[in-house]
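Field log, afternoon session.

UNIT: design team B
ACTIVITY: writing a sequence onto a fixed backbone
BACKBONE:
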């Protein structure tokens, strides 16, 4: 591989960190094969915009230096020809590759190369270390000092690291690592071959679109790039996967600070946007629960509730999308606890023993043969696992999630187990009002939030108790027969 492959060590300097709005100010490239530098190429680039003062201070590249430099369009063909057939090597390659793609896209041209990231290479070869930025690599491996944050200086550092690991780890180990990093799953034919280079590695929600921007699928993951890649590599495992792959034209994503943020956003988008290929978690057209009330003889009797009051969740048992689902749950409770089928509403009213009593599966409450207190205690124990949780705070709360990698913060505003809004700093909470908002009480969201905040071991999130902030309008899907 080292004999046959030309590695193009590349570094860019830019006006900022957003490839959609910022521009390239310098390009540095070294072509390297089997220990020999074949060519070095460096250009300053006029970004057609002012370079922010802090960037000028950071890189040393000033507005005056690039005033007479060529614009990217003037060097685009030369750079494309230089890199043709190479493996592009960059440190934090997603950054550099995204800027190159954006610049060529503005010119109506495509740009695609196999990409090797030296950050990933360092992580793969030295997994025992946590930090893999270039300054750390220079210090850790005693690499030569270079002029950092200028294109050729950073290229020299990458090349030095690459040559160092070939000696320190041995060519077979390094080549094996490179091959692993260059492997990409098959990408659907209508998507750019390098699409995965753009998908963030962290938590978030991703969307697949088809022709005419039809939303095909919404998913979430704490590792979006890996999850999207798994869709591509497994798209021929099922007919549905093949269809989705054939129809896919675009991938879009939203980064979040953590898993709970991603799960709630995914649920919201599936329920409100109805993607074609999402089977689970679609919006419920009806929602029912079970309530236990004493009858005239004092025995607890179950009845289906078709208008759930989220302010009284502690009075209900279970959430169900249909009467059939609720009756299945009731039969399960009856069978495990020898409860009366008539009192549970599974049999019509009548005199004499219920059907379960004739089978020996009821202890006689229907005939008045069981003590009321004893029966009610057994019923409460039997329904305990279905008991809905009462909201434990006096008002809404902010549930804080933070992503240490990106520095992103999401504060999920939640009230009565319902996700109402997301802000990104505590300062934004001071201007937040819940008045004139409507939110739907949802079974899936309820289960997610309960598990996150009251699950085994307690919540892993910081919870900020908030003032009343007004009361949102709560909508509940009405249950019907």
């Amino acid at each position: 591989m080292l004999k046959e492959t030309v590695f193009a060590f590349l570094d860019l300097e830019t006006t900022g960190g957003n490839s959609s709005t910022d521009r390239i100010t310098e390009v540095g490239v070294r072509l390297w094969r089997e220990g020999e530098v074949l060519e070095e190429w460096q250009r300053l680039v006029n970004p057609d915009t002012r370079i922010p003062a802090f960037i000028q201070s950071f890189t040393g590249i000033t507005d005056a230096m690039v005033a007479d430099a060529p614009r990217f369009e003037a060097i685009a063909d030369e750079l494309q020809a230089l890199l043709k057939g190479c493996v592009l090597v960059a440190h934090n390659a997603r950054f550099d590759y995204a800027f190159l793609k954006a610049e060529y896209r503005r010119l109506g041209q495509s740009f695609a190369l196999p990409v090797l990231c030296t950050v990933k290479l360092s992580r793969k070869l030295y997994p025992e270390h946590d930090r893999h930025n270039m300054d750390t690599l220079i210090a850790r491996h005693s690499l030569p000092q270079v002029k950092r944050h200028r294109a050729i200086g950073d290229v020299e550092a990458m090349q030095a690291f690459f040559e160092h690991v070939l000696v320190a780890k041995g060519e077979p180990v390094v080549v094996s690592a490179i091959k692993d990093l260059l492997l990409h799953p098959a990408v659907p034919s209508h998507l750019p071959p390098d699409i995965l280079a753009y998908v963030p590695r962290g938590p978030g929600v991703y969307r697949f679109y088809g022709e005419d921007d039809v939303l095909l699928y919404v998913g979430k993951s704490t590792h979006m790039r890996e999850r999207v890649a798994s869709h591509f590599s497994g798209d021929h495992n099922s007919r549905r996967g093949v269809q989705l792959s054939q129809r896919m034209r675009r991938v879009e994503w939203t980064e979040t600070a953590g898993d709970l943020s991603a799960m709630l956003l995914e649920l919201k988008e599936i329920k409100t946007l109805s993607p074609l290929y999402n089977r689970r978690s679609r919006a419920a057209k009806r929602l029912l629960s079970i309530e236990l009330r004493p009858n005239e003889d004092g025995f607890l009797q179950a009845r289906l509730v078709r208008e759930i009051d989220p302010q009284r969740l502690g009075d209900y048992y279970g959430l169900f999308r249909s009467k059939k689902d609720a009756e299945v749950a009731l039969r399960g409770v009856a069978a495990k606890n020898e409860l009366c089928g008539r009192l549970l509403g599974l049999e019509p009213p009548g005199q004499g023993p219920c059907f379960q009593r004739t089978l020996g599966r009821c202890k006689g409450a229907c005939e008045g043969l069981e003590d009321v207190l004893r029966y009610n205690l057994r019923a409460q124990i039997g329904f305990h696992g279905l008991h809905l949780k009462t909201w434990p705070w006096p008002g809404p709360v902010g549930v804080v999630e933070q992503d240490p990698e990106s520095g992103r913060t999401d504060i999920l505003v939640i009230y009565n187990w319902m996700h109402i809004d997301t802000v990104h700093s505590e300062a934004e909470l001071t201007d937040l009002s819940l008045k004139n908002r409507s939110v739907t009480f949802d079974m899936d969201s309820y289960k997610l939030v309960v598990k996150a905040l009251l699950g085994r071991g307690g919540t892993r999130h910081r919870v900020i108790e908030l003032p009343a902030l007004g009361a949102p309008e709560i909508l509940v899907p009405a249950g019907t027969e």
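LOG NOTE: Residues 397 and 414 are 6 Å apart (CA to CA).
NEXT ACTIVITY: expression trials, pending approval
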